[in-house]
Structure to design on (259 residues):
């Protein structure tokens, strides 16, 4: 189970200000804290990065790489900033993300090919989020087809069925579960899947965040979820993930888990 730490995000006030001031310390402290808490990779979210996007993304990537060598997931809607970040990544990165729109695929897939990057494919288009699992799968097939067209190995793809907030789209929770099950049937070996886990609790009281995310993560893991962009500093979440891995036999020796 790949945990991608979500907290280096321009939308967080402290991180946004640090980016503006080019202050490395808050970003590096958060990078180290997430890795120590169990993150296997870190999401670097620069947002739209409309002003000085390439320079900001390269600064962010270099800042984080000074303190850790984990895989980086580069998150921006600015294509120039995305490529600038990929240029300075020391290890193959994850592109977060593309949608099923043709124009987006034609922009992202050549980058994935050039920089040997993995790709997160959002199963949505400019028309909006899919209404059910079947629509998500149809867009997934379009993304897979584009990968073959641009000679990007499908093994580099992480399909994201897009979690919606349970407070406003409760019926979508099980559509995501069903979509992940169906994604695994699209290829042999199965296509990998990823979710932005915190989306499930957006708009709910903070006291519910941990129980909502940890319960939902376990549900998704039982149907084959491979990765989650999540808060590794949520102890309940991480304990639930490790316990689910035990019951799935991903952890082979129970004694080591109990210790």
């Amino acid at each position: 189970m790949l945990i991608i730490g979500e907290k280096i995000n321009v939308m967080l006030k402290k991180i946004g200000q640090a980016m503006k001031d080019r202050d490395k310390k808050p970003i590096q402290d958060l990078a180290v804290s997430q890795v120590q808490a169990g993150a296997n990779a870190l999401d670097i979210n620069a947002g739209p990065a409309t002003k000085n996007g390439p320079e900001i993304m390269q600064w962010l990537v270099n800042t984080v790489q000074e303190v850790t060598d984990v895989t980086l997931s580069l998150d921006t809607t600015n294509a120039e900033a995305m490529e600038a970040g990929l240029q300075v990544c020391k290890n193959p990165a994850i592109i977060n993300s593309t949608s099923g729109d043709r124009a987006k695929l034609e922009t992202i897939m050549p980058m994935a090919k050039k920089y040997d990057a993995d790709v997160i494919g959002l199963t949505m288009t400019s028309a909006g989020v899919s209404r059910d699992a079947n629509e998500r799968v149809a867009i997934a097939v379009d993304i897979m087809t584009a990968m073959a067209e641009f000679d990007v190995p499908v093994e580099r793809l992480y399909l994201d069925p897009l979690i919606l907030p349970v407070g406003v789209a409760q019926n979508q929770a099980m559509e995501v579960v069903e979509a992940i099950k169906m994604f695994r049937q699209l290829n042999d070996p199965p296509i990998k899947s990823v979710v932005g886990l915190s989306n499930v609790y957006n708009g709910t009281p903070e006291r519910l965040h941990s129980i909502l995310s940890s319960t939902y993560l376990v549900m998704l893991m039982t149907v084959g979820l491979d990765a989650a962009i999540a808060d590794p500093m949520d102890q309940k979440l991480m304990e639930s993930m490790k316990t689910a891995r035990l019951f799935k036999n991903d952890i082979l020796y129970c004694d080591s888990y109990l210790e």
Q: What stands out?
A: Residues 133-149 form the longest helix (17 residues).
